[in-house]
Specification:
Layout lengths: L1 H30 L2 H22 L7 H29 L3 H27 L5 H54 L7 H20 L1 H12 L3 E7 L4 E7 L2 E6 L2 E5 L3 H13 L7 E6 L4 H6 L7 E5 L3 H9 L1 H6 L9 E4 L3 H4 L7 E7 L6 H4 L4 H9 L1 E10 L7 H12 L4 E9 L3 E9 L21 H4 L20 H14 L1
Helix pairs in contact: 1-2, 1-3, 1-4, 1-5, 2-4, 3-4, 3-5, 3-6, 3-7, 5-6, 15-17
Length: 498
C-alpha cells in the first residue's frame, strides 16, 4: 500500500503542475507578455501552496477523509479551470481576478495534499524516508508533466481537455485512495459515490469541451469561428463573415482578407521592385503565405526561404482550401522552401545569403517576440544578407503606438544601416508602419508588377511622409537586456483599448 500511495504522489504532482501550466499558457495566449503572465501565475501558485501547507496543521481528525475530499476539489476546480478562464475572458471584464483566484484556490488545495499524504505515510516509513520518498515522487511527477504538456497534451488535446483530463486523474486518485485507506475512512460508500460523480462531471466536460470553447469564442469574436486550433506556440482562430476571412493568433488580428493586400503589397514591393536583380529572398514569419504570394510575382526570383515558427500555420495555409485560395497556392511553387523554426537561432545556422529579406513577425506584445526586434536580431540578420541587400520590417502602428514604431526605427539604425520609415492605411488596422533598411542605398522604384490592387509608383512617395501626429519621437534602442520596445508597446496599446 505504501508503494501505491507513492504512485499517487507522482500523479498528484503531475496534476498540480499541469493546472499551473494551463493557467500560465492561457493567460499568455489571451493577455500577451508570456514572461509576465507565467511569472505572476507561478508566483501566486507557489504562494498559495505555502498557504495550503500552513493550513494543513489545522486538519487534526479524519486525515484520510480530508485528503480524499481535497483530491476531489482539486480535480473539479483544476479540471474546469481552463474552461472557466475562457468563459471569463469572453463574458466578463474581470479575467485577471478570476485567473488569480483560480490559481490561488488550486495552489492552496495542492499545498494541502502533500503534508496530509506525508502524515498518512509516516506509519509506513521512517520520517527521513517519508520525506525523501514523497519529494522524489513529487519531482518525478512534475518532470513528466512538464515534458508531456508542450509535446503531447497541448498539441493533441488543447488546453481545455488537458485540464479536464488531469481533473479526471485527480478524481481517480481520490477514488483509488478510498480503497487504499478504507480502514481509516467513514461512510466509504458516500465518498466513493462523490468520486464517481466528480469523474462523471469531468468526463462530460471532456465530451463537451469543444462546445465550451466554441461558446466562449463565439462571444469573443464578432464573426463565426470556422477554425480553431491550439498549438504549442499559440491559439489559432479563423473567423468568417460573408467573403471576409480573418486570422487571429492569440486573440490578435493578423489579417482580414478584405484588405490584407494593402498590407502585403506595402510590405513586399517597395523593396522587391527596387532590387530587380534579386534572386534569393528570405521571409521571416509570414506563415500565411500572403507575403510569399507577392514575392512570387517577380519572375527573376529563383529561391524563396520562408521561416515560420509554427508548422500548424504553414500546414493550414498549404492545405485548407479557403486559406490556400488567399495565398494563391504559393507554397506549391517549386522555388519555395519552408523551415519551421525560431528565426532567432535559425539565422546562426547557415551561410546562405539573400538579396531581400521581408520580416513579418507578430507585434512585440511579449518578450519572446520582442527579442526579434532587438539589435542582436538585426545583427544576426545582416550576416545572412548580401552587401547591398534590402530588408523590411513590419513595425506596428506609428499612430496608435508611436513610440513603439520609432523604437523599431532607432533600433535598426543602431546596427549601422540606413533606414527608410514608411506607412500605409489598412482599414482593419488603421495606419500601419514599416521600416526598410540596407547597408547601401535605396532608390524609389519607378515601376511595379502589373496587377497590384493598391500600390502604384505615383502614390508611393506619400508613404514615406509622416504628418505631425506620427512624426519621430525619442525612443530607446531595443536590446535583449532591456526589451524597451515591449514596454512601449504594452503601454501604448493598453491606452488605445481602454
Amino acid at each position: 500500500m505504501a508503494a501505491a500511495l507513492l504512485v499517487a504522489v507522482l500523479l498528484i504532482a503531475a496534476c498540480g503542475l499541469v493546472y499551473e501550466l494551463v493557467a500560465g499558457a492561457l493567460a499568455s495566449y489571451l493577455l500577451g507578455d508570456s514572461i509576465t503572465q507565467f511569472s505572476t501565475v507561478i508566483g501566486t501558485y507557489l504562494f498559495a501552496m505555502g498557504i495550503g501547507s500552513w493550513l494543513s496543521r489545522f486538519v487534526v481528525r479524519n486525515v484520510a477523509a480530508r485528503f480524499v475530499q481535497i483530491e476531489l476539489l482539486v480535480g473539479v476546480v483544476g479540471g474546469f479551470s481552463s474552461a472557466l478562464l475562457f468563459l471569463a475572458f469572453s463574458y466578463t471584464d474581470s479575467f485577471r481576478l478570476v485567473l488569480y483566484l483560480l490559481v490561488f484556490i488550486v495552489g492552496s488545495l495542492v499545498g494541502l495534499e502533500i503534508p496530509l499524504l506525508m502524515r498518512l505515510l509516516r506509519d509506513r516509513f521512517d520520517f527521513k524516508d517519508t520525506v525523501s520518498n514523497v519529494l522524489t515522487f513529487d519531482y518525478l511527477g512534475a518532470l513528466g508533466a512538464s515534458l508531456l504538456f508542450p509535446l503531447v497534451l497541448v498539441p493533441y488535446l488543447g488546453l481545455v481537455r488537458t485540464a479536464l483530463l488531469f481533473g479526471l486523474i485527480n478524481a481517480a486518485v481520490a477514488l483509488w485512495t478510498t480503497y487504499l485507506l478504507a480502514p481509516a475512512l467513514r461512510q466509504v460508500w458516500r465518498t466513493r459515490l462523490a468520486c464517481l460523480l466528480a469523474m462523471l462531471l469531468l468526463g462530460a466536460g471532456m465530451v463537451w469541451a469543444d462546445r465550451l470553447t466554441d461558446t466562449a469564442e463565439a462571444n469573443l469574436y464578432a464573426d463565426e469561428v470556422v477554425l480553431a486550433k491550439t498549438t504549442p506556440y499559440q491559439r489559432i482562430v479563423v473567423t468568417a463573415w460573408r467573403n471576409d476571412l480573418r486570422l487571429f493568433l492569440n486573440s490578435h488580428l493578423q489579417f482580414s482578407s478584405r484588405d490584407e493586400y494593402r498590407y502585403h503589397e506595402a510590405l513586399v514591393h517597395p523593396a522587391m521592385a527596387a532590387r530587380p536583380s534579386a534572386r534569393r529572398v528570405l521571409i521571416l514569419g509570414g506563415g500565411d503565405g500572403l507575403a510569399l504570394r507577392e514575392v512570387l510575382k517577380y519572375p527573376h526570383v529563383e529561391h524563396v526561404r520562408l521561416v515560420d515558427l509554427d508548422p500548424e500555420v504553414t500546414r493550414l495555409f498549404t492545405r485548407h482550401p479557403e486559406l490556400r485560395r488567399l495565398n494563391q497556392g504559393a507554397f506549391d511553387d517549386p522555388r519555395v522552401q519552408v523551415d519551421n523554426a525560431d528565426a532567432f537561432p535559425w539565422l546562426d545556422g547557415g551561410s546562405d545569403r539573400y538579396d531581400v529579406a521581408l520580416i513579418d513577425f507578430p507585434d512585440p506584445s511579449n518578450f519572446s517576440v520582442g527579442k526579434l526586434y532587438t539589435t542582436a536580431f538585426y545583427r544576426r540578420l545582416l550576416h545572412r544578407l548580401a552587401p547591398d541587400a534590402l530588408f523590411v520590417v513590419q513595425s506596428t502602428s506609428p499612430l496608435f503606438a508611436r513610440q513603439s514604431y520609432w523604437c523599431v526605427v532607432e533600433t535598426i539604425r543602431a546596427v549601422g544601416v540606413n533606414a527608410w520609415p514608411y506607412h500605409v492605411y489598412v482599414p482593419s488596422f488603421g495606419e500601419w508602419g514599416f521600416v526598410m533598411a540596407s547597408r547601401g542605398d535605396w532608390t524609389m522604384p519607378e515601376q511595379l508588377p502589373a496587377g497590384l490592387r493598391f500600390l502604384d509608383a505615383q502614390q508611393m512617395p506619400a508613404m514615406f511622409e509622416f504628418p505631425p501626429d506620427m512624426a519621430a519621437v525619442a525612443s530607446d534602442v531595443n536590446r535583449l537586456d532591456n526589451q524597451a520596445l515591449v514596454q512601449y508597446y504594452e503601454r501604448e496599446w493598453s491606452a488605445v483599448t481602454r
